Amino acid sequence: MKIVDKRNALLRSQTSSYRRRPRSTIRNIAIHHSATTSGSAEAFARYHVNELGWPGIGYHYVVDRNGQISHCHDIEVVSYHVGNSNRYAIGICMVGDFRTQTLTKEQRQATLRLTRKLMDDLAISVDNVWGHDEFPGYAWKPCPSINMQNFRNRLTRRGGSYEEIEVDKSFTNDQQQRTILSIGDQGSDVKEIQQRLDELGFNPGPLDGIYGSQTEDAVIRFQRTAAIKVDGVVGPQTREQLDRFEHKDERELASPTDEPDENSTMYEEESRRLLRLLRPMMRGEDVREVQEKVGAVPDGLYGPETERRVQAFQRDQNILVDGIVGPQTWRALDRISENGVGYERLLSIQSPYMRGQDIRRVQRELGITADGLFGPQTETAVRDFQRAEGITVDGIVGPQTWARLFQ
Ligand SMILES: [Zn+2]
């Protein structure tokens, strides 16, 4: 039984990083299966970064079929695996597709021990150890496809063997946190501050745990932004502001989830966000939607190029040119999508999900969340529509269904 520290070994995005949270925010342990018959932390990291465009692997821990545990993120990292609950949950993924496979004995033992260890460390009760499908909005998801009640029962049956867990040194992270940090200091607490500054877009230089001039400069820039005393020293006030900035926009944390899905509340039409160039940059599906419509690279980050394109769009539309997507600009963007997109291709549920303006238009017409991703909810709505129209019920939007939708 062994935990391998891969926190600095797995593929990560060059352009984005996950946020961090205080430990006190953590309420749940989320159990997943990989839904693949084989795999590894390395393979999932590649998939999540290269295919899904995430900042890094979605899970905090991956448990192989042979019971080896990979530690992928600090538990303070808010990675993507349970949508709106990401902020509160630690993700453990067991390699396997438990719709057709069963977990190995080694894997079950290792997962139980790891879960107990985390429950102890974080004072999480067994009632807060949930399967992915037990999280709000995920009842439809076949994950982890094991009997969670049974799993919880085993957790409470404390076999003596869990102490034998071999933990990597930094796992418990009970190192002392100094209250004041300034230039010349070194240590994991300095590194933590660097990571937080980095995640907020203040570029403190290398994340090396050394409080050098670049780190000091980042602290100064952060203090200026937060409108607090500018001294380049991290004290209680700066920490408080770091917390505040990290939690400023909780809606952003809603998406994406461990597989792209549309069950997040991010896109509730009535409450669309005001989008603008900020530092750190705003990110999300709504940014991507704007980018698709104004012809910017759809990377989901509201950067200078997106701002320029939005200004050009506003100029074309004869509305206020401020580079900010507010209600007026949203309405103008909506008009474009309503009239601009015709039938282009067969739309169906695929892996990864198809995305695009045409899907958004279909979703609006069906009266469901218009996130532009063709997922299970969209398929169900298409089937319902086809049934009501008396045409072939296949959940696929081809020319016939399209014509019925928009006739
Ligand atoms: Zn899952």
Structure summarized in a few sentences:
By secondary structure, this protein is an alpha/beta fold.
Could you tell me the CATH topology label of the largest domain: Lysozyme-like
Q: Major β-sheet, in short?
A: 6 strands, mixed
Query: What general outline do the C-alpha atoms trace?
Result: flat
Number of helices: 12
Computed over alpha carbons, the radius of gyration is: 23 Å
Helix content: 25-40%
- What is the strand tally? 8
Which ions and ligands are bound to the chains? zinc ion
CATH class division of the largest domain:
Alpha Beta
CATH architecture verdict of the largest domain: 3-Layer(aba) Sandwich
Summarize model confidence as the mean pLDDT: 83
Descriptive tags:
single chain; 407 residues; alpha/beta; Lysozyme-like; Muramoyl-pentapeptide Carboxypeptidase, domain 1; 4 domains; two-stranded antiparallel ribbon; 12 helices; binds zinc ion; Amidase/PGRP_sf
